[in-house]
Each structure stands twice: as C-alpha cells, then as structure tokens.
C-alpha cells in the first residue's frame, strides 16, 4: 500500500484487472474479477465504498466487512452496490425532528428496492425551541459533523433527514462541501394548531398571544389553553417560519423531490415520498449527480424568487449565502435584493398572512407557486429528479382551499395576476448604519412604517431590554425606534432570534402593535413586524450600530433601501475613538472557535475556514 491517500478521480483508475499499487481493488486483492461478479455490472469500478472499504481482500477489507457482518448483513451488500448514508438529525430534544427515525425506515425501503445498501447514522441535532444560547451558534458545527461523517465513511450517496430550522441548511452545507450525490428529505410541518375553534400557528400565535396577555386582552387561562392546542402532532412549525421556508428552499434549489416540502409530517404521503427518495438516491449515485451539478447560480436565483413569492423567512438569506459559499457560487445581498424585486407575493400564510402549511399543501404546495412564477425562474436548472425545475412543475395545479364543508374556497396560493402584493420579499437595506447591509421582511411589516423617522432608544443587550420593557415610566412612544446592540454572530454569540423585541407594555396597553426595531440579531421566521435585522457589521466588531446613542434620529426608507443614522461623520468618529470591543463570552470550546472565525451576516455567518468545497477524497487507512 502506498502512503499517499487514494484518489477518487475516475481518470486515475487502472484498467480492470490491473495491479494498482495505490490500493485499488484488483483480482489479486479481492479474489474475484472486479466488475464481473454475477449480476453486477462493471459500473461500480470507482465506487468509493467498494474500492476503499468493502472490496479490498487484505487485512483492512477483512476488518471492514467483518465488523459490518456483526449487524447481520449478508455477503451481497459488499458486492459494490451503492452505499447510501442516511444522515439523521433525529433527537427527542428536537421536537420538530422526533419522528425522523420512522422516516428513515421509509428511506431505507426505497434504497433496498433500488439495489442500494442503506446505512443510517446520527449527527448533531439542533432544536430551535430548546437549545441555548441559540441553535444558530451550532449550525456550522452540524455542518462539520455531516461533512466529516460523509467523507470519512464508506458512503457513495447521502440522504439528509432534516426538519427544524438549522438542521436543513447545516446538513446541506456539510454535504455540499463533500459533494457526493445528495438528496434532502425534510420531516414536514405539524398539523394546524387549534384554539377556540380557530387555527393558530407556531410562533406567530405565541408572539400575538403574549402581546395580548401583556396588554390585558387575554387571560392567563386562555394563554395556557392556547399553549396546549398549538403543537398537535409531529413535525416542524406549520407557519411559514424558517423550518417551512428552508424546506421550500431545498425544493426550490433542486435538492428535494418535487412537492415534498409541504406534506404534513403525519400524512402517509410524507413516508411514501421518503421511500421514493430512497429509490432516487441510488439512481443519482449511478448518474453521479452531485450538489455541485445542482447548486448553480441559477438555482440560487430560483430559491430567492421562490422565497419572495411564499413570504419566506429572513433567515433564508443567511442560510442561502452560507450554502452558496460552500459550493463556490458568488452570491451577494445585492443579488438577492435584485432577484426578489417585483416578485409577486402569492402565499397567504402566517406570519404574513392567514393560513398554515397544511392548507398550503392541499392548495398545491410549492410546485403550484413555482408554476405561477415560472417566467421569472431559470426553468432549465437541474434538480435531484434528473429533470429541470421547469419540467418538474409543468403540470402543477393550484387549488383554492376550503377548510370547512360549505365554506367558500379561499385562495391560499394566489394566481400571479392577483397577488397579495408585489416586491414583498426580503429587502436589503444599506446606509451609514448598515454599510454591509441589513434586511427587513416587507410582507410582515406595517406599511405605514416602511418609511419612518424616529428617535432611537438603545439597549446594549437583550437582557437590558427585557428588564425595561414592562417599566411604565420607560421613555418611549410609538414613533420611537428600538435599537438592540451586541446580538450578532460574535456579540451574543450566535446571532439569536431576539430581534423582534416585544412591544413595551405601556404601548401595548395603548393598542400599539408594531414599532420599528433595529438590531444585529435575527428573528424567528414565525415572527412579524417592522423589524430590521442582520445589521452588518455587527456592534461587537465595531460596526456603526455600536455607536448609536439614545436620542439619535434614525431614518428607515424601505422603498429606497436606505437605513441612515442622522449623526455627523465627525461625531461618529469621536464615538468610535471611545468605543471598546466587547469581551468574548467564553475562552474555550466551540464558542471560542466560532467567535474567532465566524463571518458577518452578509457573508452567511459561516466559519471562514469552511468556505469552499473539499470534496470526497478518501483519507489514509486507519489500520
């Protein structure tokens, strides 16, 4: 055996039957003619799982096969068939993903049916509802887990089982860095929440009910009753929050089977399409159809436009930037703003609209939306189906949905000629307060506040704000601009979902439901309001946000894409001279590595040393 790591370049493969000093399988090593086994074609020549693990006859091959036999696998699984890694983010600490082990069984059935060898393995699971200080802190760690697990094991193709917010982008980022054939299977949304005969949505109802309780419009008993009725089944948020948005983004990018993003988690069709995914990934390995073939600049343009049409989460901006960075696609905030302009807002879903993901699925799901906006899409972008996105949605149907018998049909998905609005996607703002950009979700904002000038009320931490929010003497009115500092990727760390600061109690009691809020934080995709987020550079690294003082005038002009701090350059220079950086909150472990290497929001908040694609080259032998 050579000391050099083996290559996966098919151009470097020896002719069948040749003795290869680099460690490739040969008749001399395996004891059988490579590529000529009964019933097996020669196409598995170059299959990494066979060439470097299960096809070797020497000591290492003995070890690899023998230990796998301990699980009861028979001889034929080592014959060169595609090994499919089922990368599972299941965890009971991630309620959104608690059903993924069952979903994995459906994928396995499909893999076996197509002649593959499925092997399930766990990776870090990120529960948005439980994990502190924020799941976003660990998205890049999950991506590393996925990347190294795929590269270091005998895997030829991967199925990513995801659901909760960060599990989908984190898993995609890791798989994209390895660039083996990959297909995403999301877990699906919960059934609609129910309270007092009405549908209520994950997150969105929480923000609204909490505000109503604080204002005295909702009793504690009703608040508790709503809690028990909101989450009624397995699955992720059934609003168009980040989980639902990223499921749609995976489909719009071409990484998920057509029509699968919106199927409810407990619908039998969710398990049926997972089985189809298992079948398809085996064919993708035979076709050598990889993420780098799918995740093109055109694919990202399609995803950005789809996000605008569905009224998707602002968090998609950060995740799409990070995924693009992994595959070497040049994607900027300016690109995303340009692509989203003028796209009709078609999906009437909470938090921006009325309905929920279950209704969205019955109305036609994402394929119906994509067909409506097909003239705006790059229709020839390739997808995991092996067909283009235009071919995938050519026959999609939009159905007006009625939730109750006898009720008139409601257009959950509007026709393109009758949208809810135009250009209501995520807008990118720039100015002296956000030189590198900030974002606002137009469909979730109040129209009257899209152009606004007000005095700043500044808080250096979310804890400081939480202590002040109930103070009846707080110096605030409905025109005040609430400013939160030090909640960005380095400052918190991890950029938590605290940007949609609760309306101060004194104003809530007066009936105020929205205010302009500005921060370097994120907000939940289930949240709403005129909330400016992702201000870059963040306060913790000395961005202009760190220099804002209470009483400063701030101008927001969303149509003009402008965010301006009305303070002179000379005064800002004086403040900068007095500014002191915040101290890192930890000196050890992952948090330290993250703070030292995380990029800013306009670059996707990835770690600087993870940007780019490393590939699937097999490492040196372990024994």
TrEMBL record:
InterPro entries: Dihydro-acid_dehy_C, DiOHA_6PGluconate_deHydtase_CS, ILV_EDD_C, ILV_EDD_N, IlvD/EDD_N, Sugar_Degrad_Dehydratases. The keyword Thylakoid does not apply. Residues 1-50 are annotated as: Disordered. Residues 26-50 have a biased composition (Basic and acidic residues). Transmembrane segments: none annotated. GO terms for molecular function: 2 iron, 2 sulfur cluster binding; dihydroxy-acid dehydratase activity; metal ion binding. Residues 412-605 form the Dihydroxy-acid/6-phosphogluconate dehydratase C-terminal domain. One of its GO terms (biological process) is branched-chain amino acid biosynthetic process. Keywords: 2Fe-2S, Amino-acid biosynthesis, Branched-chain amino acid biosynthesis, Iron, Iron-sulfur, Lyase, Metal-binding. Coiled coil: none annotated. Its EC number is 4.2.1.9. The keyword ATP-binding does not apply. Residues 81-392 form the Dihydroxy-acid/6-phosphogluconate dehydratase N-terminal domain. Belongs to the IlvD/Edd family. This is Dihydroxy-acid dehydratase.
């Amino acid at each position: 055996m050579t000391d050099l790591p083996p290559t996966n370049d098919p151009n470097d493969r020896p002719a069948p039957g040749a003795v290869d000093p680099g460690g490739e399988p040969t008749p001399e090593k395996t004891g059988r003619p490579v590529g000529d086994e009964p019933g097996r074609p020669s196409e598995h020549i170059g299959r990494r799982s066979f060439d470097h693990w299960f096809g070797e006859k020497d000591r290492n091959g003995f070890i690899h096969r023998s230990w796998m036999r301990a699980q009861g696998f028979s001889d034929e699984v080592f014959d060169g068939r595609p090994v499919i890694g089922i990368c599972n983010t299941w965890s009971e600490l991630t309620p959104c993903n608690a059903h993924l082990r069952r979903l994995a069984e459906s994928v396995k059935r499909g893999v076996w049916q197509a002649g593959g060898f499925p092997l399930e393995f766990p990776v870090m699971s990120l529960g948005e509802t439980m994990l502190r200080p924020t799941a976003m802190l660990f998205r890049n760690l999950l991506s590393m887990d996925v990347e190294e697990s795929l590269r270091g094991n005998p895997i030829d193709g991967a199925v990513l089982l995801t659901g909760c917010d960060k599990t989908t982008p984190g898993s995609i980022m890791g798989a994209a860095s390895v660039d083996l054939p990959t297909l995403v299977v999301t877990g699906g949304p919960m059934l609609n929440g129910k309270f007092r005969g009405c549908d209520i949505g994950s997150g969105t109802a929480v923000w609204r009910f909490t505000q109503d309780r604080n204002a005295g419009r909702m009793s504690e008993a009703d608040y508790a009753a709503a809690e028990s009725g909101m989450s009624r089944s397995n699955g992720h948020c059934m609003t168009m929050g980040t989980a639902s948005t990223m499921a749609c983004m995976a489909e719009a990018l071409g990484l998920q089977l057509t029509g699968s993003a919106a199927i409810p988690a407990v619908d039998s069709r969710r398990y049926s399409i997972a089985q189809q995914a298992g079948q398809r990934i085996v064919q993708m390995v035979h076709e050598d159809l990889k993420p780098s073939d799918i995740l093109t600049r055109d694919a990202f343009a399609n995803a950005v436009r789809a996000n605008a049409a569905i009224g998707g989460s602002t968090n998609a901006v950060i995740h799409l930037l990070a995924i693009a960075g992994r595959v070497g696609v040049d994607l900027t905030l300016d690109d995303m703003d340009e692509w989203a302009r003028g796209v009709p807002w078609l999906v009437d879903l909470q938090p921006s609209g009325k309905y929920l993901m279950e209704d969205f699925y019955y109305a036609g799901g994402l394929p119906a939306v994509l067909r409506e906006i097909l003239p705006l899409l790059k229709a020839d972008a390739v997808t995991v189906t092996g067909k283009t996105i235009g071919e995938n949605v050519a026959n999609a149907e939009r159905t007006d949905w009625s939730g109750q018998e006898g009720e008139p049909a409601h257009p959950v998905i509007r026709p393109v000629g009758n949208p809810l609005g135009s250009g209501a996607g995520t807008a990118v703002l720039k100015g002296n307060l956000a030189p590198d950009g900030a974002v606002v979700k137009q469909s979730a904002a109040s129209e009257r506040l899209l152009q606004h000038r007000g005095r700043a009320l500044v808080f250096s931490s979310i804890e400081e704000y939480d202590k002040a929010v109930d103070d009846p003497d707080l110096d605030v009115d409905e025109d005040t601009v609430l400013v939160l500092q030090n909640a960005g990727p380095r400052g918190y760390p991890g950029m938590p979902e605290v940007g949609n600061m609760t309306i101060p109690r004194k104003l809530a009691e007066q009936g105020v439901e929205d205010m302009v809020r500005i921060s370097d934080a994120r907000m939940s995709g289930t949240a709403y309001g005129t909330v400016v987020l992702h201000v870059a550079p963040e306060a913790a690294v000395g961005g202009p946000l760190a220099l804002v003082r209470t009483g400063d005038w701030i101008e927001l002009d969303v149509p003009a894409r402008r965010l301006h701090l009305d303070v002179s350059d000379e005064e800002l220079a004086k403040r900068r001279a007095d500014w002191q950086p915040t101290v890192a909150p930890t000196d050890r472990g992952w948090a330290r590595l993250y703070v030292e290497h995380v990029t800013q929001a306009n670059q996707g908040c990835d770690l600087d040393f993870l940007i780019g694609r490393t590939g699937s080259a097999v490492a040196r032998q372990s024994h």
